[in-house]
Amino acid sequence: MRYDPSIYDGAAVHYRYGRPAYSPQLEALLVEELGLDGSGGLLDVGGGPGILTVRLAHLFEEAVGLDPDVAMIAAGRRAAQEQDIANITWIQARAENLPAVVPGPFRLVTFGQSFHWTDEVRVAEAVYDMLEPGGALALVVHTAEGRAVPSHPGPPRIPHDEIRELVHKYLGSTRRAGQGTARVQALGVRDTLARTRFGAPRVIFAPGIPDLVRDAESVLSGYFSMSYSAPHLFGDRVEEFAGEVRELLRERSPDGVFWDWPGDTEVMLARK
Ligand SMILES: C[S@@+](CC[C@H](N)C(=O)[O-])C[C@H]1O[C@@H](n2cnc3c(N)ncnc32)[C@H](O)[C@@H]1O
After folding, report:
1. Is it the case that residue 3 has pLDDT exceeding 90?
2. Residue of the CA atom closest to atom 13 of ligand 1
3. For the residues 21-26, what does the mean pLDDT come to?
4. Contact by Cβ (8 Å): 75, 105
5. In a domain? residue 5
6. Is the CB of 139 under 6 A from ligand 1?
7. Residue 80 CA to ligand 1 centre (angstroms)
């Protein structure tokens, strides 16, 4: 699969502000499932601005945050500095460059919403060889489908359908990615992993944040953090688009705040 370095152009500065956090119980779930005890290494692949790298680094002796996007790496490094986390090495590279760029071994290799960007089978096989015996691969995503929706805390929900209509108005209805369009995956991730030496993974859920309230600017940043509506795609109409989203959000919530329910945090665990 060819890597297009423009997929997240302009997105890194919006990422941490715009994306909802994973479950606050994610660390506890991983500690319990994998018996983490502060030793060993973590490799977070496609870590973006270090979302999982920074959250999980304290559970390991050493952590590595890997991403091909230089602005994402810079944002991760900044977040780690702000939180005084000193055991992370940052590497600008693609997953397909594994194991050459950082051979390991690792106790845990994570992909937070990033595995789909890679040559999945080839990358999973490379990761398998990089894990210590008993080590694990963890694919982490938000999943709302099929999960119980918590009770409504008050503010209106983010009008995603209407914002997506605006995205389509500016960018067309075919999902964009970098200079082209998004890849359509033939197989689900579970089936993909089942084809590798890992075999079928186990799926576990950690409860999402039930009452996450976000302001309008963070909702807009969330869209700018997505590959399909990253700032570069709008060219010189980016401010026009932002203005229309802000106006829509003002109409839908005069208080300027929204309830976000991205779902529970799904962890697909595959052991070596
Ligand atoms: C949706 S972001 C995920 C960021 C973070 N892991 C999280 O959990 O929010 C996807 C990341 O995958 C990275 N990416 C894209 N292609 C990649 C590849 N071939 N190898 C590794 N990372 C890749 C992008 O640069 C981007 O930072």
Report:
1. no
2. 46
3. 98
4. no
5. no
6. no
7. 17
pLDDT tens digits, one per residue of 143-176: 999 999 999 889 999 999 999 999 999 999 888 8
Contact between 54 and 80 (Cβ < 8 Å): yes
Q: Is 72 in the pocket of ligand 1 (CB under 6 A)?
A: yes
CA distance linking residue 50 with residue 272, whole number of Å: 25
**Measured between alpha carbons, how far is 91 from 42 in angstroms, rounded to an integer?**
13
Ligand 1 binding pocket includes 79 (Cβ within 6 Å): no
How many domains in the chain?
A: 1
Residue 154 alpha carbon to ligand 1 centre in Å: 33
Residue in 103, 82, 100, 122 with CA at minimum distance from that of residue 1: 122
**Digit-coded pLDDT (tens) for 201-239:** 999 999 999 999 999 999 999 999 999 999 999 999 999
Pick the atom of ligand 1 nearest to 226's CA. Answer: 1
Domain of residue 43, residue span: 12-271
From ligand 1's centre to the CA of 29, what distance in Å? 22
CATH of the domain at 244: 3.40.50.150
4 within a domain of the structure (yes/no): no
Handedness of CA 189, 192, 197, 200 (dihedral sign): positive
Closest by Cα among 91, 97, 103 to 123: 97
Instruction: Work out which ligand 1 atom sits closest to the CA atom of 225.
Output: 1
Atom of ligand 1 nearest to the CA of 8: 25
Q: 262 CA distance to ligand 1 centroid (A)?
A: 18
In a domain, 181, yes or no: yes
Identify whether 75 is part of a domain. Answer: yes
